[in-house]
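Box S2. Input/output pair 1.
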Amino acid sequence: MAIGWKLHGDGRTPPPGEVVRPDERLSWPRTAGIGAQHVVAMFGATFVFPVVMGLDPNLAIMMSGVATILFLLIVGGRVPSYLGTSASFVGAVAAIRAAGGDTATVTGAILVAGLVLALIGVLIHFVGGEVIHRVFPPVVTGAVVMLIGFNLAPVVANVYWPQDQWVGLATLGFAVLCAVLLRGFWGRITILLALVFGYALSWILDKTVGQITSVLPGQNLLDANGQPCTAEGPYCIATAFPHDRVDFGGVSGADWFGLPSMHGPDFKTSAILLALPAVIALLAENTGHVKAVAAMTREDLDPVLGRAIGADGVGTALASAVGGAPTTTYAENIGVMAATRIYSTAAYYVAAAVAILFGLCPKFGALIAATPGGVLGGITVVLYGMIGLLGAKIWVENRVDFADPVNLVPVAAGVILAIGDVTLRITDDFPLQGIAFGTIAVLLGYHVLNALRRPDASGAGIIAPAEREIGGPVRRAGGHEPGGNGPGKSEPGKSEPGKDEPGKDEPGKNEPGTGPG
């Protein structure tokens, strides 16, 4: 699609019941205002996640703008979306760094994952999305998303929270209250508000209470003899020392205008294997977002699903090629469209241009990088937990049946392998650990068990073979759909009491408007 939009009506706010379509726009001042809302909506997560991953937030914000423009061009302007920093790689990055990988190794692994996602997008475009759904059914996709989030719990407990536990607790409480009490636009920027609150609280405590004594990663490094050392590792560890919670030294020395720091990637097989599971999460995330946009715009976007997924992969590969953060379509910006009924891609071009300008201000990046660790501790408790529970949301929306051992057992094993960061050392230089190990266990376990199940879909139950328990049999018989739910799929004439009988639906189920969102 050529870059150009029709003016909607008189260019003012659309009347009730009308929407501004992707190929339309309001007057440019109003379009700029909507673009500003998109910037604020994506802003919190787009710079928090690079900080958490140890990447340059300035470069991440700038490349998010570049990736968004590239995305809109690839999909021909049919899928209005903003590409912000992806949270799906946070666990992989933490594992890569824990194994001794540097920032170049991190971005190299992300680049390969981005290319894989782009290739899958091309495959979907020509073959259709059904092949992906068969390889990654909801039970597998939900499990991978869950283990990516919950694998990060030790990062909160061991890195951020100990830096300032009371500021972390206060920031966490503020974030929870904002998420519950605020509505509309303010509710969508809860993380940004919590960050500002924690930042301000830390500055006030520095002025009133004084310095805090805690451990900062990479600082005050001492060896076993208590002597200073240079490279953090098993025999050179960071130790506690008195310091300000907020250090503006880097801010005062940063320029107002300039290019962010860039670097090339480095490729290591062990790091790449840790990053690849995030591709599964991105497939689920992008597919869900495209379907949400299709529902709002009332357009069939299935023909461009492959292009949208591929465009996200290209954006991730491009951003990481210069040292930036991975990208993904943002639900926050979809929320802005739902609230305003303005789906114009012109607003996204405005938001992308603003993000690029922010990325060209090193002083702004230095201010972000100075975020106190205690504040990140409070925020990441919520963020990492939400990432994990998105996996459960996938299960609920697709009604995955965990009474079926084929669904239950691989997920149970994979989640524990990931959360426990269990390592399988295939060779000294080739370990499978945490997220990668858990993902392979879920994916292979599900498909192997599904292939071995009896033709009548029956088999030994986990709790009591062939016995019935509350809610139905342990293993549903007949007509089972892999990865799906069991209720409503029993053999003819063997439906359970109160189920599959006319007029006996369970309360709140199968009624118009009561299904999952």
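Box S3. Input/output pair 2.
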Amino acid sequence: MPKISINYWDLVHLVGRELSIKELEDIFPNIKCEWVSSDGETIELETTHERPDLISTEGIARALRAYLGIESGLKQFKFKRSGLKAIVDKSVIPERPHSRMFIVKDVSMTSALIEQLMQMQEKLHLIYTNNRRDASIGVYDLDTFKWPITYCAKDDYRFVPLGETEEMSCKEVLEKTEKGREYAHLIGKKYPLIIDAEGKVLSMPPILNSEDTKLTAETKNLFVDVSGMDEKTVEKIATLMAVALAERGNVETVTMEYPKRKIESPELKTEVRKVSHQYINKLLGTSFDTGEMVRLLEKMGFGAKAEGNNINVRIPCYRFDVLHDCDIAEEIAIAYGYNRLEPILPKVSTIGRRHPVERLSEQIREIMIGAGFQEVLTYILCSKELMEKANFSGFVEIINPVSEEYNCVRNSLIPRHLDVLHNNKHHPLPHKIFEVEDCVEVHGNKTETVRKLCVMMIDHGITFTNMKSLLQVLMKNLGYEYSISEIKHPAFLEGRTGKIKISGKDVGIIGEVHPEVLNRFELKHPVVAMEINIEKIIERG
């Protein structure tokens, strides 16, 4: 969960009502903020990942005003047109094609605002923009450059980077500055730049801004740009920044001129969803009338109007987490208070028990621990690079991953276990590890979550026979007859690999890991591995 810091006095000022620390501590859980601590000046909170609108004092203040009835219902944002123009040149389209910009006038640059701007940029970049790949944010002093501005890409250009005193070429920025080295991999063949009417550089997205346009204590007017590879993410981040800064000054739009279209930015898109009154009550086990539901939704910052047995819900432009009618039901439940909902036993005649997969998983864990193996726990998400490094394919890849380290869903536990051995190669041998966890397999155009056992050993002179002996012990304790037949697999050594069968059906694989794979993981001793689909054992049993 994102952890944020906000200034108590700044929050009270934006809310417009005096609230004690104790009152805030009691209220925060009702707007999806978890209290961490406070020293009377600074409040530490944790927010949920699906609510990026709550990672700033401005967003929290807006939610509190609605919840406390100070400004309930849908917040109306009416941004004036500035008449300013930003040209998106065709040269930048192959490099970093999307951009949204706006200005904010009459801003008081307090220390609290500066801290919140820095925090918003940091959290949004880290959590929601794939570490600046999909979108990056720049904030500038509006009065330090001339309009119109151009978003373009060049082979090279010279400017003074933020925090530096000497002019550098774009290439030098990537080589000599901390941010340049950190994000150089996001730059393609040309360098994306934002340049004013006189040729002054505002920034080199997504690396860093220019020293000439930096914010100071005297800054009164802001210019904000969001650029990136993913247009939806760029739009969302621009919306979040605009509605937050609307709490601090007067936001005005900028006309974005693309080669083949024009956009007035930011675009504050709201959605209307028609929700059944009966559906909400059935889901929550309540008997609210439509009027009560409208009141509760307004308490959470939504626009709502009853229409017969339905409610037309207008979703705020910054609430990207509302995807289904059940999300509306959740908002009503929060506004009403979970503690006030009466618990009712379900009207069913069945008795619950542990799933057979869970019972067998627990039995296998006990056997493996008894055999002297250490259990490891690894993430179901991993990197495509790791899977391919171990010669595995056919896994599910994630579109728009938060991190390149977690851009696919594993279909085998083996690559992760090889990585565990790599990270522990400085410890004395032998290493004997196992894991019983879920993987996701692809069957045609469908996916299936399956429970697997992976066992791996590394030691001097260890062979297939060592793992086969363990398999014998495991199957004897579980009460299954099995057989092994030779197969080929790119992760294993040919002639030393077999498929495990129970009742004539394949349930797993056993063998010596291929030397090429071991070299990629920098493992200098033999490794034997076994992986079994536990759910297939149950089917065959």
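Caption for Box S3: The mean pLDDT is 92. The first helix runs from residue 8 to 15.
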